[in-house]
């Protein structure tokens, strides 16, 4: 076991594994069929949304049941500039504006909401976050001239004037020569998702991550350590909102469509469930949550058993809650613990030690100097 | 030292994986996708995906779980029942002379547009020939343009959204059920037809649904001096409208106008029930108009305590026979329908009559069959040509005949105004 | 000039006045005990200093007023507070708790040295270094809480009843270690304690609170000779 641990925790091995993942992600879309690429992109969209939720819920310990609000607002912030400006003089610049706004607008809204609400705890905070989608949805429907309302906005076939002077229909996210649309959209989604995962990685590994962990664990101690719970909770909530918004942009890259339905409250619950299933206190958990969110229904569709999707999801959630409270991301740790417990005979003490020693969701508290000791 | 060694090894592994991957990329797709042509140029045309000499695969993306699961499962079950029966008889003889069985694949979208978009991707990957019959405006909208891009027919969708029947906007689409405007217009025309002066009060949901109904009605009564719309009130759809008694103040306000006709386009069933009870309670007894999805005798009128004599008339618009009505079950076609539902339906607790969508799906399946029998080549283009040229087809359970040739209108065009008779509805031509 | 000086500090919990003129002075490097019965205002006095309770009067630290500062600001000035009960982060390991204590520090090398120093001081913690804090015994948790606060390298360590809920021998061990910590580091301390014998083993002087008011102050030597104090707090 020691040898195995040494290999896994070796910095070079981790770097090598990361490079392998990068290379596979880069080459896969050229080989895989379109549906595989679309599915991976779809997973990446929700992994980013769930990652935001993990930062606010898993890492900082605040309840947020309104995450779909930020995803929906981000999707609007992305798609509306593209709808209105892409065919005009701004051309591809509209996409850049959409991208920036999809992070900025939810971020600012998240900041304002957090400044007012993070002093609330538990149920009160949950209620306020529930209010976001429940107010946002009817608002989006009321201003349907702008938002497309219930019918939504689709930008797959936008008018533009071609080189021949004629008006054509075009998809702003259509690929240039050499790539198929699904490949092009995959690369955009994966590149942005990777960038935001890297940001989150460095965030939670560093000073901020330690502060989040302290605030989550004990606010009184946080204060006594010079860490302002208020400031870091506002920060986490704002970051989560930005991640939600960026996921909204990625949703547009992936599907080129959004409607008021994206804001709906029950999607917040879907995201919370996916976060818990993947592992709320973990970055990898966000990816696993995205996999759960996207693939369970796809597999059930494939088996032509989708009327049982909810049932299967429910069973998975219950199993996770009982067997893997740390989510799927904690599976390797749990397996190692069980193996060690077996090896250590009946020594409960050893089990405890192993449990906490391999607590990979917690290592962000240690500064880098400590990590390889 | 050890670290460096294993580190180099890890990088070497990464590099080799990269190299292998690049080699794989060299023989990337395209190679597999392009079918060897050349040999068989004499054969008429390359068949579209999802069709062989013996089968055709049709996809349905619709809510199978969640709040809309009941009607959603019906949109699948009607087709399963119809084609299940046909398949058992050997299949359907297509216009190219080949007999094919129809395979229905269903995909749950939970009434979530993002899921329906993903479902479309999956349907393309699964090689469906065509897709449709599913219900829901945003969910069908979410892959409408993707279907156009991919040239996959998205047909006989169950939404009153007119865009699906607009041939310019939607070149590979067709709606099944009447658009909201048609229902509103049917009531307007029948109201004009009685020749009496009427004062109309309107309450509508402020979205494409409510506005569509009201617009259809207004267009039908436009320019008629007998009909005066004295007041219009609207409300925002959404969670607030699920609050009990949310719309009763509006009903009271409209009652104050003394209108003798109440045109109501509210899609929230409990609110409709309350409003029907409220108006009578405060002594306002107008003629009512209700949209087809909130006019069920068992689900709306009876719970509201409304009888035949409560109001001078409660009108709704129908376009198909109701499976719950006794004559339906006694007819030969009705018996066959229930038998097929019992045999082939997959939805939970499906009796074929709880929601009208089962019958609508059965009607849609008949229209598909018509197109299959007419299509002369195993291609989507040929299928769409055939589908768009059905005229004068009398489908079982549909009022009037099917006509798919009119740009801007869905396959089922004949709507009939119906008046509540205490138990069910009777078709009428004139209000009054 | 004292490191920390409280003059006529008042505080309220809603309408209830819990502090009504508390005056304490902690010299640089000194150790002061606060004695008093339950409800005398000992914990509230500490909270007033650390900024978790709104207070009136004068609270000066290194010749500047810290009254009304946010808790995290007070902490960043070098006052580390070990709250009543178990001041540990239960879902983090012992080592992680220690690192949390060093959160504001930039001298990473010295941090590692300090960790080793504390683990030498509390060998129990070294044994449990990879255990979750919640799995430690009460005494170990208290040692960890003190160590965590010490890791912040404060000028002033505020301890709220480190003996609470501990067996007498364990409490003795904790106080022995606190005493050694003080002697070796020269850190100033303000210690709330019900058990005056334990407190006297560490502090140089004592303030006695009664119903939110300072009623008596003096060095341990003076107070050991005071019959009233002996009877009330030192068990005869």
Topology of helices and strands:
The complex is a heterotrimer of chains A (373), B (432) and C (236).
Chain A: H1 2-9, H2 11-31, H3 34-59, H4 67-85, H5 93-117, H6 122-142, H7 144-147, E1 153-154, E2 158-161, E3 167-170, H8 181-205, H9 207-217, H10 219-224, H11 229-255, E4 257-258, H12 265-278, H13 283-302, H14 309-323, H15 331-343, H16 348-357, H17 368-371
Antiparallel strand pairs in A: 1-4, 2-3
Chain B: H1 2-26, E1 55-62, H2 69-88, E2 92-93, E3 99-108, H3 113-126, E4 130-132, H4 137-141, H5 144-150, E5 154-157, E6 173-175, H6 180-193, E7 198-205, H7 208-221, E8 227-235, H8 248-255, E9 261-265, H9 269-281, E10 287-290, H10 297-301, E11 314-318, H11 326-330, H12 332-344, H13 357-374, H14 380-387, E12 391-393, E13 402-403, E14 416-420, E15 425-427
Parallel strand pairs in B: 1-3, 1-4, 4-5, 5-6, 7-8, 7-9, 9-10, 10-11
Antiparallel strand pairs in B: 2-3, 11-14, 12-13, 14-15
Chain C: E1 4-13, E2 16-26, E3 31-36, H1 42-50, E4 55-61, E5 64-65, H2 71-76, E6 79-82, H3 94-101, H4 108-121, H5 123-127, H6 138-151, E7 156-160, H7 168-185, E8 188-192, H8 196-200, E9 205-210, E10 213-219, H9 220-224, H10 227-233
Helix pairs in contact in C: 3-6, 6-7
The coarse overall form of chain B would be elongated
Quick one: how many beta strands of chain C?
10
**Count of DSSP helices of chain B?**
14
The major β-sheet of chain B equals: 7 strands, mixed
Helix and strand pattern of chain C: EEEHEEHEHHHHEHEHEEHH
Distance between the termini of chain B: 97 Å
The rounded Rg of chain C comes to 17 Å
CATH topology of the domain at 4-87 and 155-233 in chain C: Rossmann fold
Structural class of chain B: alpha/beta
Q: What do the pLDDT scores of chain C average to?
A: 89
- What is the helix/strand order of chain B? HEHEEHEHHEEHEHEHEHEHEHHHHEEEE
Spans of chain C of at least 5 consecutive residues whose pLDDT stays below 50 are none
Superfamily (CATH H level) name of the domain at 4-87 and 155-233 in chain C: P-loop containing nucleotide triphosphate hydrolases
Strand runs of chain B, count: 15
Content of β-strand of chain C: 25-35%
Helix content of chain C: 25-40%
